Amino acid sequence: MAPPLAELWVYLSATPLLFLTLTLLVYQGAYLIYRRAGFHPLLNPVAISVALLVALLSLTDTPYESYFGGAQFVHFLLGPATVALAVPLYAQLGKLKHAFWPICGALLAGAVTALVSAVGIAWALGASDLTLLSIAPKSVTTPIAMGIVERLGGLPSLTAVLVVCTGIIGAVGAKYVLDALRIADQSVRGFALGTAAHGIGTARAFQESDEAGAFSGLAMGLCGLVTAVLFPLGVWIVRALP
Amino acid sequence: MLAALTVLLVYQLVGEIAVVAFRLPVPGPVVGMALLFVSLMIRGSVPDDLRDTAQGLLRHLSLLFVPAGVGVMAHLNRLTDEWLPISVSLVFSTLLTIAVTAIVMRALLARRLKGQ
User: Does A88 contact chain B (CB < 8 Å)?
Assistant: First the structure.
């Protein structure tokens, strides 16, 4: 006799297999939709996957911790993937040397804009201190942002969510902003995406061209470095003020 | 693929160790990326195996953010309480950052071309 569905569910949801498989299935479904629509930026696969998974977990009353028990194997790959960004970056070495100073200037302008505008707007609209601390590094890739916020006493898991939202917003909106500004240079388009929207922006940039993707990956790494230094310094200054 | 994946993990591990040993303010994988980049510069080329594995991983970079994104359900209370400052800040700050970065980089590149 087949076991009742509820019993089967209890058994399966206790192993990593179920939620790992579910994550991969849902993402591939979302990616299929994205591809069918000619990679339209509004149909971002991360946004669709997250929405579907949250709906599924809510309907089945599954807590996030149980889900993450399986999904952590995917999450873990963020580390090696970050290291792997060195490869496309190296392929752009020639362009990189040529554009060294413009890159430094754009990076500093972008990183400061991201930090100051995120905190400034949220503060002006009455966000709590904990939210301000957690939203500040939103443009930086997840592992870096979580690391910074954890050290400063914010909520790393909230930061992770805000970082992913930022990435989706950047990946969805970049094309419209950059087209409106008539930016055609692939290296500039990629660099702006990576600075503002880290890895999700970089995935989007690779959709435009390899050059945009490589510069986006570079921007993502550099913006992480700069923010990791600037943000704790800024917090230190603000806390030292009377 | 196995060898290349091992290389990536070794660089990440060395990065993590360096971060702890020297109390660096950046995460291990970023240090690992910098070290791999320097190694490739010294070597002068990318091994085929490493190139394929890196491409494979990066092709689905978006997927890797899904588990963290689903964490939104653990913070629904705070997000609904403060939805206005959070959403306005995220949207405007992100789009503004894209615009500022692109404008500054384009201006500096144009100035450099004129200088040559």
Answer: yes
Torsion angle in degrees (nearest 10) through CA of A180, A181, A186, A190:
-90
Chain A CB contacts of B105 below 8 Å: 99, 102-103, 105-106, 187-188, 191-192
Q: Are A53 and A23 in contact (CB under 8 A)?
A: yes
**In chain A, domain spans:** 1-77, 85-242
- Strand, coil or helix: what is A158? helix
| DSSP 3-state of A188 | helix
pTM comes to 0.86
Q: Is the pLDDT of residue A2 over 70?
A: no
Quick check: helix, strand or coil at residue B55?
helix
Q: Can you list the positions of beta strands (E) in B7-116?
A: none
Q: What is the DSSP string of A111-139?
A: HHHHHHHHHHHHHHTT--HHHHHHHTTTT
The lowest-confidence range among A116-120, A205-209, B9-13 is A205-209
Q: Count other Cβ atoms within 10 Å, centred on residue A4.
A: 9
Instruction: Say what the ipTM of the complex is.
Output: 0.89
A191 CB near a chain B CB, below 8 Å?
yes
Judged by CB atoms closer than 8 Å, whether chains meet at B66 and A193 is answered as no
The verdict on a CB contact (< 8 Å) between B8 and A83 is: yes
A233 closest CA partner among A115, A135, A101, A64: A115
Residues A176, B100: contact at Cβ < 8 Å? no
B6 CB neighbour count, 10 Å cutoff: 12
Give the pair of three-digit tokens for residue A13: 């949801």
